[in-house]
Design goal:
216 residues, Arc Repressor Mutant, subunit A, six-stranded parallel beta sheet, 6 strands, elongated
């Protein structure tokens, strides 16, 4: 039997999920509570194989609870079931250890299949969620390529990029020298060379250049 724990603050929806999942002979389903605190406590009580959890809940949301559950019980699978399909929610869930990400318009038979797949060590993601993820990856890849093109065009060395990043953070030559193990005079010379190389007049324009070309 696959023990599934459902955590959601919407009582009607949670009861519906409990009923739907309970129709499958291979699934034993339990109520995991209405917020992250209860989810963590009930993981100790029920020791589920899979936690099906909403993201937005009172007191403690699903993201924080998920991270804590994965820290305490690394063998427990945590699958997000939410209405949110934005890239921030998706990436944060992945970062916090989500084993699946599906949205609440899923059909009952698809939900059961998703639970069984996650239980069997497969990552499950709704098609429209995958599309959001793909678009963000394409955007990041494009930005990275632009970044590389800028570095190649201006022939910037890794050390020069580090100096630029320190300047964007408002560091003085003395502070940069201390950070990068140079003398203050060496940093001053490197900054002067950067001004010439980038064809800008001052440190502020270097910072603007760095932000514009995504060097930070």
């Amino acid at each position: 039997m696959i023990k599934v724990m459902v955590v959601d603050d919407q009582v009607l929806l949670k009861q519906t999920l409990l009923f739907m999942l309970g129709q499958d002979v291979e699934i034993d389903v339990v109520d995991g509570g209405k917020d992250g605190y209860e989810a963590i406590e009930n993981c100790e009580t029920y020791r589920p194989d899979v936690v099906l959890m909403d993201l937005r809940m009172p007191r403690m949301g699903g993201l924080k609870a998920m991270k804590r559950i994965k820290e305490i019980y690394p063998s427990i699978k945590v699958m997000v079931l939410t209405t949110f399909e934005d890239d921030q929610s998706i990436f944060k869930s992945l970062e916090n250890g989500a084993d699946g990400y599906i949205v609440k318009d899923i059909k009952p038979e698809e939900l059961i299949m998703a639970v069984k797949s996650v239980y069997n060590n497969l990552y499950v993601m709704h098609m429209n969620v995958l599309q959001v993820l793909k678009e963000e990856i394409i955007r990041i890849t494009s930005e990275r390529q632009k970044n590389n093109d800028t570095i190649d065009h201006y022939d910037l060395s890794p050390m020069e990029i580090k100096i630029i990043q320190q300047m964007v953070n408002g560091k003085s030559n003395k502070e940069i020298a201390s950070k990068l193990s140079f003398t203050e005079g060496t940093v001053k010379n490197k900054v002067s060379k950067l001004l010439c190389k980038l064809d800008v007049k001052d440190r502020t324009q270097i910072a603007v250049f760095a932000i514009k070309h995504n060097l930070i």
